[in-house]
TrEMBL record:
This is Biotin-dependent enzyme. InterPro entries: 2-oxoA_DH_lipoyl-BS, Biotin_lipoyl, Single_hybrid_motif. Transmembrane segments: none annotated. Residues 1-63 form the Lipoyl-binding domain. The keyword GTP-binding does not apply. Coiled coil: none annotated. Keywords: Lipoyl. It comes from Paraburkholderia unamae. Pfam families: Biotin_lipoyl (PF00364). Its cofactor is (R)-lipoate. Signal peptide: none annotated.
């Protein structure tokens, strides 16, 4: 997979998230995957639902 469409945010902007908690759903040609948080902290969303992103693009920060 080289790119995908941000289908849905599963956590709200500004929410406290835990490592492993599903953050967003990413849709590719073949499937929809829930992407987990890589760390715990406060979520700052940058990505927009319906937009196409390449692997490695910044969709959110956890601080």
């Amino acid at each position: 997979m080289e790119e995908g469409t941000l289908a849905e945010w599963l956590a709200a902007d500004g929410a406290d998230v835990a490592e492993g908690q599903p953050l967003y759903a990413l849709e590719s040609d073949k499937s929809v995957q829930e992407i987990p948080a890589p760390a715990s902290g406060k979520l700052k969303i940058h990505g927009a639902i319906g937009e196409l992103y390449k692997v490695g693009d910044l969709l959110a920060e956890i601080g």
